Amino acid sequence: MRLDLNTAAAVAARPVAAPTRVALEGVSLHYGRTAALSGVSLAVAEGEIVCLLGPSGSGKSTLLRLVAGIERPSEGRILIDGVEVAGPGRFVEPEARQVGMVFQDYALFPHLTIADNVRFGLRGRPPAEAGRIVAGLLERVGLARYAGQYPHTLSGGERQRVALARALAPAPRVLLMDEPFSSLDGRLRDQVREETLDLLRETATTTIFVTHDPDEAMRAADRIALLHEGRLVQCGEAEDLYTRPATLFAARFFSDINELPGTCRSGRVETPLGAFAAPALPEGAAASVCLRPEHVRLVAGPAGIAARVVRTAFLGEIDHVVVAVPGLDTRLTVRAFGRTGLDADDLVYLEVPARDALVVAHDGR
Amino acid sequence: MPAARRLAPPDGWSAGAGLVALAVLAPLAALALAASRGEAGHWAHLLDFVLPAAIRTTAILLTGVGLLAVALGTTTAWLVTAYDFRGRRVLDWALLLPLAVPTYIIAYAYLDILHPVGPLQTALRALLGYDSPRDFRLPDIRSMTGCIVLLGFVLYPYVYLTTRAMFLMQAANLMDVARTLGVGRRALFWRVALPLARPAVAVGASLALMEALNDIGASEFLGVRTLTVSIYTTWVTRSDLAGAAQIALAMLVIIVGLVVFERAARRQRRYANDAQQPRPLTPYRLRGAAGAAAFALGAVPVAVGFLVPSAYLVHAAIVRLRFAGLSSNIVTEAAATVAWSLAATVVTVVLGVVVVYAARLNRGWWPEVCGRIAALGYAVPGTVLAIGLLPVVTGLDHAIDAAATRVFGVSTGLLLLGSGAALLYAYVVRFMAVASGGIESGFSRISPSLDDAARTMGETAGQRLRRIHLPLMRPALATAALLVFVDCMKELPATLLLRPIGFETLATHLYGEAIRGTYEDAAIAALLIVIVGLIPVLVLARVGHTRGLAP
Fold first, then answer.
1. CATH 3.40.50.300 occupies which residues in chain A?
2. What phi and psi, each to the nearest 5 degrees, are found at residue A258?
3. What's the rounded Cα separation, in Å, for the pair B269 and A63?
4. Between residues 109 and 138 of chain A, which touch chain B (CB distance below 8 Å)?
């Protein structure tokens, strides 16, 4: 129920109310006794780019395969353009769903040329029209001169673009991408992602893609749906998830955090770094105060909390400083802009603005 | 002396591999030589009267068998990989069973089953109310069509085996992506699975065709005069070695074509595979009537190619045993078959180890080329090989005889031919590839760093083989030996031509009876061959099964 409200809130919060393209309603999938997905509800609007984010085994790829029709849900309904494609009494086969899919390994047909791969889904169209679509897409992704070659002669980035062109050729109602950039590395990955997003926005293609990389999700998606152990943890824009994580898992997923354990006493959680307000928590509840590294500041004067530097690392734009605070078992990671000039065993002072801290009860996932 | 050997250990092994390669090449070279010795007029006669018809017959037979084997092999492979139904797991390995039935045995069995007064036609007449074969009979099985159908139903498992493996390896992603692009479940076979499996189909089909080309019994019993039959009759009834060699040479051209085709397909198959990391296809569940229909469809080739002929053989063998008991002839022949097959197996496996080990010790081109040559024999039909071996062996026999006469003053006569050593030679050449293939895969699973470690501890090449490799690859050796043994037991064409006078194996016994038209102990001989032939099929089924289950 809570998840439904979450979704409804997220949909309502979107600035332009476009019609819903894909809707999942309480979707579950069980393999025997193990649940791959439990009660996931999610709505994706026309032209929206939504990312399914989560660690491996969270069910994100399974969710994508359910939308494609490669798997059948055990419970719940899936609608595309308001028409039920999977539900208790109805199942539309993948070939009739008009969805496009890009796999992690691209799944290009090794026995077909690049042009024939892209043309594959255009059977039934007049040859001239199909040829025009293929030529146009290959031109758009910059692979026109490879049209007659076979997939094994292409580089990873080029294969990804062929897979994208092939999926887009029949103008699918929704494009599904499973870890589409994860087989590429470094610079190439960023470049291919930017190009892909440009093309998707230009064609206003409704897209659901899967990744395990929060950075990628934040860069590419209009909205992020965070999954954990088969459940939807939180869904919203990147900033929502980063600044207002619903659970400890959500807080941990987006960056390294400093976790200070404590207990709630009269609406406050006491820690060696001070007391933090937790009005929503019951008396005596075990809780964690979460501080992202950039929220712990190094200050000049002895007004702050005294700490000892354990080690520092130069990371270019920022310095990464690990400090030990008296009375605290764990060490704190601090991110400081510019060179600090600190060395191990130096004495420093810390300041923690209370408004930046996230207090999360321990029963939260 | 040991110190010297330790300095240059690979040389002895490479030389051994070279000798094996030479032994394989010798009959092929002798074939060319023997063919060229024939008179020119002879060749013209062959060209005018024998070859065109035999080549046309062979071409029609190969085309028919190829088409039927591909049709049966690919559809059954798709049935058991893309669909799941009651009995699928049984069908999965049962479809391999016809491999246990040699071509000459299926022809032998159906000749009797489908005889105008045989069980099937009698039953049909009783059902339809006819009294005599004169009023109603099925088309004669002794025809080109009959031969194609029977060979197709026992040789399709070659296509089934390679194609099924390919379907199992094909990434399910490719099927899934095709479906999101609008391809229905049934159309997947034509649009994706089959085009992707093309190399595997080609490999399987060429193996089936090599087997069809090797066949002598079925085509002869069924009255189809192929090149193989022509070679045999030219030599046996007309004692015309040059003529037989010339036909054999013509046949070698077809074989070279098949081998090139197969090799090219294998290369392509490697290509197609490495791009994908396979998540296996999830089979689609068929329930109720659809499931039963699928099972029935898949059971047809098993019934025609294995169940019906084996049931017939069991029945005929029991009848014979009741009537005449176990004749001493059959026992002697069975013992001779086992003895010769065992001897050939030992020699083949030992030489196979030499060839493969030479390539492991010495990474140069020489041992590898020797290995390739040594494996060529699998493609050469038994008849062709035997015709090539005859001049080689008689030449050696004459040399031995001359030497013995000169040194000891004793004539040895035709020592190799008379003792059956020639037969052994033929078995070794023909089945070397079976052995070396298995041995090679055994060696490849042993890390080269074990060799290096043993070397640093002062072990010579021979000691390493004995103390490390052989113990580690005992299962691979056993499998290789088993496969060679069974192939030797079933071998017919080369045995017919090279056996010493008065020597009979189970296979030649059956051949003799079938040619004479006497139905006596042959069913027992055939049954024994099929039972032994089942062993490697079961091994194969187990291997295929575990591979299929692997995630």
1. 2-98+172-251
2. -95, 125
3. 33
4. 109-112, 120-121, 123-124
Please tell me if residue A236 touches chain B, with a CB cutoff of 8 Å: no
Residue B103 belongs to what H/E stretch?
A: helix B103-113
The residues, ordered by sequence, that sit 6+ positions from B512 with a Cβ below 8 Å of its Cβ are B504
Chain A nearest-CA residue for B185 = A95
Helices (H), strands (E): how many in chain A?
9, 21
- Tokens 């799941």 appear where? B84
Q: What CATH number belongs to A257-361?
A: 2.40.50.140
**CA–CA distance, B79 with B95 (Å, rounded to integer):** 11
CB atoms within 10 A of CB A255: 14
Q: What is the pLDDT along chain B (551 residues), one digit of tens a residue?
A: 343 334 344 578 888 999 999 999 999 999 888 888 766 666 677 777 778 889 999 999 999 999 999 999 999 999 999 999 999 999 999 999 999 999 999 999 999 888 887 888 888 888 888 877 777 778 888 899 999 999 999 999 999 998 998 888 777 888 889 999 999 888 999 999 998 888 889 989 998 999 999 999 899 999 999 999 989 888 888 888 888 888 898 888 888 888 888 888 777 655 554 444 567 778 889 999 999 999 999 999 999 999 999 999 999 999 999 988 888 888 999 999 999 999 999 999 999 999 999 988 887 788 888 888 888 888 899 999 999 999 899 888 888 888 988 888 888 888 888 888 999 999 999 999 889 888 988 898 888 888 888 888 878 888 889 888 999 988 889 888 998 999 999 999 999 999 998 899 999 999 999 888 887 889 999 999 999 999 888 887 776 554 433 32
Sequence-separated (6 or more) residues with CB below 8 Å from residue B364:
none
Pairing mode, if any, of strands A258-265 and A318-324? Answer: unpaired
Q: Which domains does chain B have, with CATH numbers?
A: 11-549 (1.10.3720.10)
CATH number of A2-98+172-251: 3.40.50.300
State the first-to-last Cα distance of chain B, in angstroms, to the nearest integer. 53
Check: CB of residue B248 under 8 Å from CB of residue B387.
yes
pTM: 0.81
User: What does DSSP assign to residue B468?
Assistant: I
What does the alpha-carbon distance between residue A266 and residue A281 come to, in Å, rounded to a whole number? 9
Alpha carbon B412 to its chain's center = 35
ipTM over the 0.90 cut-off = no
HSE, side-chain direction, 13 A CA sphere, residue B90: 9
Q: In whole angstroms, what is the distance from residue A166 CA to residue A137 CA?
A: 8
Which residues on neighbouring strands pair with residue A360, listed in sequence order?
A288
Give CA separation, A108 vs A152, A205, B191, in Å: 9, 21, 14
Beta-carbon contacts below 8 Å between A and B:
78
Angle at A72 between CA A69 and CA A77, to 5 degrees: 90
What angle in degrees, to the nearest 10, is found between the helix axes of B51-82 and B227-236?
130
Q: Does B275 touch chain A (CB under 8 A)?
A: yes
Asked if the C-beta of A283 comes within 8 angstroms of chain B's C-beta atoms, the answer is no
Q: Which residues of B touch A85 (CB under 8 A)?
A: none
Q: Are strands A49-53 and A223-228 parallel, antiparallel or unpaired?
A: parallel
Q: DSSP state, A315?
A: E
Q: Which two tokens stand for residue B525?
A: 């001989």
Q: Where are the alpha helices (DSSP H) in B215-307?
A: 217-221, 227-236, 241-274, 288-302
- Residue B27's Cβ-side half-sphere holds a number of Cα atoms within 13 Å equal to 30
Q: What angle do CA A289, A295, A300 make, to 5 degrees?
A: 120
**Distance (Å, whole) CA B336 – CA B338:** 5
CB–CB contact B182 A101 (8 Å) = no
Q: Alpha carbon of B454 to those of B296, B466, B472, B529: distances in Å?
A: 56, 12, 14, 44
